Amino acid sequence: MQVSKEFYKYLTERTWQLTEDWYESLDKSDPTGVYNSQDPKVIQTLKKQNHEFHERFCVLFEDVGQDTLLNFENWIEKTAKDEEHLKTPIHFILREFFRTQDQYLEFLKEFSREHDNTFSPEEIQLLNELIIKTFSLVISKFAEENYEHSQRRLGAQQEMIKELSSPIILIDDKTGVLPLIGDIDTGRAKYILENSLAQCAEKNLEHLFIDLSGVIMVDTMVAHQIFQIIDSLGLIGVKCTLSGIRPEIAQTSVQLGISFENISITSTLANALKMAR
After folding, report:
1. For a tag site, which of 149, 173, 197, 244 has the least CB within 10 Å?
2. CB atoms near residue 45 (< 10 Å)
3. CATH code of the domain occupying 2-159
4. Reported confidence tier of residue 132, pLDDT bands at 50, 70, 90
5. pTM greater than the 0.90 cutoff
């Protein structure tokens, strides 16, 4: 369409204007994220990302009908996994997409006024629809990529937390301590079981002290999981001693009918270590 090619020329002459106008009107009061950064390097990168978006967007009008997402694929992937954007709440990012869309719609109005009677209202409306459709596709794909990168980063952080939350600390060549802290759910209990078995076997331990001082609550599920850990370690020749069962946990255990009678228990980890000497 001739109208799209003319609009393409109109836009390509104004890509940096779009970027500078956008940045100047940016709400820099957001408490977190890339848009309130005072770092010159971050600001420069942000402007480059915005300008590259305009360059890719303009090309769509030079050849109407090309694959929109293919044209934006690299830009979406790079920007969605950019560290500064990953630290920015997604609703702030979506807000800027819609503000940029408004910029294009305003430019289209200006273009229409400057080319009054040159193009029909129907032709201008087709460009309007193309702008909105393109933004819809890009926003949807960006949100998807941003979510996937965020989930991968969160997963890596959770794995690190798991490793740090269930370390076996060596007391001597044959003895170790496993301090448990916080809530123990099914996923974490499974990790603790696998990690404890692997570490005890690797370190050739004979006695493991499991300290519950930092465990917030013990219910039937948690108790069952602790028994499972102790039984599994017993099968590879590791004796276990529980310590740090707080009064409220002991009371809850009695009310729930949980029995620790066949398990070696001491009041504190300090007492457990004294008895082991």
Report:
1. 173
2. 16
3. 1.10.490
4. very high
5. no
